[in-house]
Design a protein that fits this description.
Blueprint (H helix, E strand, L loop, with lengths): L6 E4 L3 H12 L4 E4 L3 H8 L4 E2 L3 H6 L3 E4 L4 H9 L13 E4 L5 H12 L4 E4 L2 E2 L2 H5 L3 E6 L2 H14 E8 L3 H29 L4 H7 L8 H14 L8 H17 L5 H15 L22
Parallel strand pairs: 1-2, 1-4, 2-3, 4-5, 5-6, 8-9
Antiparallel strand pairs: 7-8
Length: about 300
């Protein structure tokens, strides 16, 4: 049986836009909204319908997918004066694909439930390139029955779907994942800075490290390929978003009474990148704080 649910999408940034385009191109008509008119136009050019506000998306949707940059934006979109809570019909579904942390998602879900609006989550692993090919990793949280109703959308954008537990559990898995990923990059950047400042031949360094236990995806892709070889910091995962995820990780660790030294140390590198004005570059721009000559693109 063909799906008859009306689907809305709010948040058309790099990843959100790629996911929405993938879904629209696979035959699911979307009603879309973003504060960036050009981002909306990229969707309407391939057949999506534009909405003029969050409320209008809610009025025209049974399922609303969200891809938003910060927990405060999630709360405003869901609960604000023009928020989804005021216009979605009972039994509608809000699905957050963002990384907003457990506390924010659970808070929003509880408020929506007071209006009989259901909420689930599916934070994303990998980036826009994977969304365009339907190869994202999706960390689902929420009631299983509700997730089944949005699974047809997840399967258009992802090839690895994991049920993590109740609402908020997907956020815990995603924040833990991004802590390891972003901290790994910070360590690799620090090692590169040490080698550069110590006068090492960096071509030799970048040949040696992948052959030892220092090897990692971030070392090979962010440090060696993007920064050292190409000097290209065009965003795949923006530094400001990685910084936000590390802030969420550090806060969650403190709340749970756990050591947060690795998160705090990694965050210091991203704070330097932020202070240097690199927020909208790729997260690999953390290397520019100590090696600005790397930027050639």
């Amino acid at each position: 049986m063909a799906n008859t649910k009306r689907v809305g999408w709010i948040g058309l940034g790099d990843l959100g836009g790629a996911m929405a385009r993938r879904i629209q191109s696979q035959g699911v008509g979307l009603t879309v909204y973003d504060i960036d008119a050009q981002a909306v136009r990229r969707l309407t050019d391939i057949g999506a319908e534009a909405a003029g506000s969050v409320r209008e998306v809610a009025e025209r949707s049974d399922i609303v997918m969200l891809s938003l940059p910060h927990p405060t934006v999630l709360e405003e979109v869901a609960l604000g004066a023009d928020g989804l809570i005021h216009a979605l019909a009972p039994a509608s579904i809000v699905c957050d694909t963002s990384t907003n942390g457990r506390d924010a998602v659970v808070k929003v879900g509880a408020r929506l439930a007071e209006k009989d609006i259901r909420m689930v989550e599916g934070p994303i692993g990998k980036g826009p390139w994977a969304a365009e090919r339907g190869e994202l990793t999706i960390m689902m949280g929420g009631e299983r029955e509700t997730l089944r109703e949005v699974e047809f959308l997840f399967r258009l954008i992802g090839n690895e779907l994991y049920y993590c537990g109740p609402l908020g559990a997907g956020q815990v898995v995603k924040v833990a994942n991004n802590l390891a990923s972003c901290a790994n990059l910070a360590v690799a950047a620090e090692a590169y800075a040490l080698a550069a400042a110590g006068g090492a031949d960096l071509d030799v360094v970048t040949k040696v490290m992948p052959q030892t236990a220092a090897d990692s995806w971030q070392l090979r892709n962010a440090v060696i390929e993007r920064a050292h070889r190409r000097g290209d910091f065009t965003p795949v995962f923006k530094l400001k978003l990685a910084r936000k995820d590390l802030q969420l990780a550090a806060a969650m660790l403190r709340t749970l009474g756990l050591p947060s030294a690795c998160a705090e140390g990694a965050l210091a590198w991203y704070d330097q990148g932020h202070d240097a004005g690199h927020d909208d570059l790729d997260q690999s721009a953390v290397l520019l704080t100590t090696n600005p000559e790397l930027r050639r693109g």
